[in-house]
Amino acid sequence: MQMSGNTILVTGGSSGIGHALAKRFLDLGNTVIICGRREDKLREAQSRNPGFHIEVCDTSRESDRIALVQRVTKQFPDLNILLNNAGMQQQVNLLTTTMEWNRFQLEIDTNFAAPVHLCLLLGKVLASQANPAIINVSSGLAFTPAARTPVYCATKAAVHSFTISLRAQLASAGVDVVEVAPPAVNTDLGGADGHTYGVPLDEFADAVMADLAAGKPEIGYGSSSQALRMSRDEIDATTAMINKTLPIPS
Questions:
Q1: Would you say 241 and 145 are in contact if contact means Cβ atoms under 8 Å apart?
Q2: Is the full-model pTM beyond 0.90?
Q3: How far apart are CA 26 and CA 46, in angstroms?
Q4: Cα 11 off chain centre by
Q5: 152 noted as active-site residue
Q6: Which end is more exposed in the chain, N or C (fewer Cβ atoms within 10 Å of the end residue's Cβ)?
Q7: What would the pLDDT profile of 33-78 be if each residue is shown by its tens digit?
């Protein structure tokens, strides 16, 4: 994948993995547009990285996605890379939860419907550009699901499957399709302090950038690199270990 001279749209780019990758792309001489739901967070990210362009967008909403694509393709006609990163993670006990369905729907729409729809909206646009690419962020939990985050794991497994199909469909159009499957990374995904046990964010982001530059179509790190190639027996054993270490909330 070409690492400089691109125009890149990053969803969920104001914090966490999205922000870390967006910053690195900016430092390499790319035009970077970050989008997110909260304008204050986007402006904070922009103040730290004045080169960022920002777009307020709740990617869980169909109308917001359509409007985002209309604005960005008009303002940045040379857009050639989409990085689908925005995500949310909820811990839930399905037998005791009082959470309304709309919270589950929000998780599904943010994690799966949004990247699929953005790929549909931007596929032809990207294919018409030089050095086009789509980067979808899944998760190591797509392969070894944690019982306490069942919807999150299911949506990320769906992203993995969709990305494989997308890669095959877009190969003849010359669009690189890359899956990034993070392990637990020390970010605020799932709430503040929820992943303090994860690998350092900068360490992970640096490794991802190196693998993107090397042209790898599937990128993991540490435990998620192993998960990408596990046998079924290894998946079962690792999943059992995860569910013992990370118990279901009461």
A1: no
A2: yes
A3: 11
A4: 8
A5: yes
A6: C
A7: 999 999 999 999 999 999 999 999 999 999 999 999 999 999 999 9
